[in-house]
UniProtKB/TrEMBL annotation:
Subcellular location: Cell membrane; Membrane
Transmembrane helix among keywords: yes
Pfam families: PBP_dimer, Transpeptidase
Record's keyword annotation contains RNA-binding: no
Entry's transmembrane regions: 17-37
Entry-linked InterPro entries: Beta-lactam/transpept, Beta-lactam/transpept-like, PBP_dimer, PBP_dimer_sf, PCN-bd_Tpept, Penicillin-binding_protein_2
Family: Belongs to the transpeptidase family.
Name of the protein described by the UniProt record: Penicillin-binding protein 2
Main location per the UniProt record: membrane
Amino acid sequence: MTNIPETGRNPRVQIRLVVIQVLVLSLLGTLGGRLWYLQIREGDAYAKEASGNHVQQVVQPAVRGSILDARGVALADNETRLVVSASRTDLLKMRDDGKAVLTKLAGVLGMKPQDVMEKVRLCDAQTPQPCWNGSPYQPIPITDEATAKQALQIRERSEEFPGITAEPEAVRRYAAPGQANTAQVLGYLSPVTDDEIQQAQDTDSPYLRSDQVGRSGLERQYDKALRGKAGVTRYEVDNLGRVIGEAESDAAQPGDNLVTSIDARVQRIAEYELNEAMKAARKEFDRNTGTTYKADSGAVVVMEAKTGRVVAMASNPTYDPNAWVGGISAADYRKLTGKNSNYPLLNRAIQGQAAPGSIFKVVSTSAAVEAGYDFDGGYDCSSSYSVGGQVFKNFESANYGSINLGRALEVSCDTVFYRLAHEEWKKDGGMSGKNAKDYFYKAAHQFGLGKETGIDLPNEVTGRVPDRQWKQDYWEANKDAWCKTGKKDGSYVEKIAYENCVEGNKMRAGDAINYSIGQGDTLVTPIQMATIYSAISNGGTLYTPSVGKAVISADGKSVDEIAPQSHGKLPISRETRDKMDAALAGVATNGTAAWRFQGWPQDQIPMHAKTGTAEVYGKQTTSWFATYTKDYSIVMTISQGGTGSGASGPAVRNIYDALYGVSDDGDIDPKKALLPTPQKTLPKVKTDGTIAAPKISDDPVKDQQATDEDEYAPIDGQEQGATVGNQDTGNRQTRRRRRGGCPGDRRRRTRRMLT
């Protein structure tokens, strides 16, 4: 034996070494495979993601374009406010994540520290409002109502407020010039939603998370033009979010400006007169219900008869669009949308629909002539008309004997139209409807009823023409409910339900008779009727109503005029139109509206009118008043307001007095006339992008006298090379201003306001 150990390995150790080698090789193989997968197969995707993680963008919102009236007065513009913002990136570099700085800032701003801290936290699924929903790399606004003193404290002690800025910024303002609110026409803004960002990302106008979007009115209709293009600066950041360099930058492009056909002075008077008419109606006694009229809502439209351009459009109840600026509070939102709000956000000029009553008779008159009835023939205007045991009465049971269709319009004789409609119903086969020509229903469609007018405002409603097809569709949708609740010998409502169950799809005689005077299931909107009466005024052309007049780029190099467009002609001959025109003039001189136009200079400015009082089951009557001159048509309606001439008549007369400068004794004073002829030119604009807009106060006469010295550019005068600038004026008090009243009684209130 020897003392020298053996040189061979222990078999057990050798096995362990082999196992370790296999494991090492396996790990290396796995790592290599994973690296191949990440770098080769998925390399492009991860490279793109990594690039995105290290490039962040800061958005500089574009200045939104102004909305101006026809003379250049700002209806919606931007005011400068001191905005205090915090840089979240800078705050997170601090040991306490900036809590001490935010607490000190809260003391300067007079806010609670918790409120300030909540504003700079980022929104996610678990974080409720308030929180920041934009990019974490851009300044987060704390308040947009800082005072000059607060801003100076922050800026002069910048070392105590690292990451905090106090800078002037442009914020939306609804100026209400001369107290012309114009709320439903203008609309309002609110932040863009995630869904909208997603839907618009592949369009030519994508949204940024910082964008404010038009939600109604002109703000929504012309949002793309008004919004402009936000500026974006892209920064390179490390994995801790620290900025290490600037990648690229795109400058912000301000939005275009919208010039409208609205005249702020006329708008102010239209709003005031509508409101006063409703207040006056609430003092009147309703014999049918034994209470005073509720007059719960209303609308008025002032339209250029020869173009369809809207000079004024008021809806009541109304609201202050400034409530939405900077975010609406929960309490204000409930006031505007709750069950007891009466929905002031609705623009009842285009979204309020009701039975038109007798202002619909211009449609029935043209239908009767088209059906072969002589306009100048004799028709019995008896006090009542009976069909199948049911008696249909004239208003206050008036009896005028044999009259022609013109006189039937003047005195608004229901029974003349009852007879004509009933006779045509029988010719059309009665309830069977065989070989029905349906002149009365076709005429309504040809006048543009039952469909949108096409006005450049969103969410317009169509109204309703209850023809045979509508009857069939409506019956199929509701017959099960009618049959379930109807009783042959039950209450009035149950009897109606029973009749509808059995024959609700049939055109009954009573349906045709009620329809002929704008009752029954017929529904129209004020904008539809203003379009119709404008067409009668201008010779028969149906113009598409419009509010926008021109879009002007912020740099002044582009002026895009919005020209008037027609969408058809009235289905009447020139002879019939002329006879209807004369009859409607007779309404204002010796018909149902004559008492409202006493002293009117008819020889100088021929006035035409039609009154309407529509009955609504379960409610008080709806007041309608439709009028026109050679220049304008004005239509007003008041829900549950009483008669047409009684409730709406005085207000419409006062608007005309203001337009033409008509005094109590019928004289015309050009110096007091706000707009004796429609505005045909665009406001003159300067080469620096500002507008030479006339000043407007609460005294429309002074405004009109100032206008005499104003200069205007031709509406097609792009050669002027001017533009409308973004208005940067006003203060916080203006945006909170509410409309005030004018002194004076109902008879003289507008004249006193003008003198």
